User: What shape does this take?
Amino acid sequence: MKIVVFVSGRGSNLRAILDSRELKGKIEVKAVFSDRENCKAFRIAENNSINTYTLGENPGQTGYKNLSHVLNQLNIELIVLAGFLKLIPDEIVKKYKNKIINLHPALLPSFSGKGMYGIHVHEAVFNSSVKVSGATVHFVDSTYDTGKIIVQKCVDISDVNSPEEIAQRVLKVEHQLLPFVIGKFADKKIEVINNRVVILE
Ligand code: GAR
Assistant: This one.
């Protein structure tokens, strides 16, 4: 299965995808896209001989205008947002319905929406004093964090002392969850039945 990965930051989840043993031979990462020109994750892509594309900070920029064309040419089956902090343009969301997934570092629908990314999420989780957090992989629609949930995994945070500690525990789970979901897509084991996303055995 041909996929592309969108990133904005350090790219540890991109690395988890590329290093995943269960994904070896099942998927091919055709390109990595970022809104930022000097995105750290680009180094990981380049070290793996994967083409990188800079989209620009806002949707009016050239990178975004060419996006649909580039994706078409790559003939991809899945778009993975792994720490990508911008909205995907509506035309792409419509064209790739149920073929764009996002990783969120909390249990949606809580701790979500614009501005809720990275450490900000973990700070809000910490300050709310909830005892369980986790990671969510969901389909992408035209607003932040509202698409149907594909899979979630909980993490006990009842004994943590800082948002950073929550981030560390959740990240560990993210590195397993995202490759797992991508593998299920490659196996064609993900379907929407009765309005719910189901992972088939
Ligand atoms: C991950 O924790 C991901 O869940 C989060 O950004 C981090 C990227 O880390 N995404 C969001 O907050 C999206 N709302 P990485 O660059 O090391 O993969």
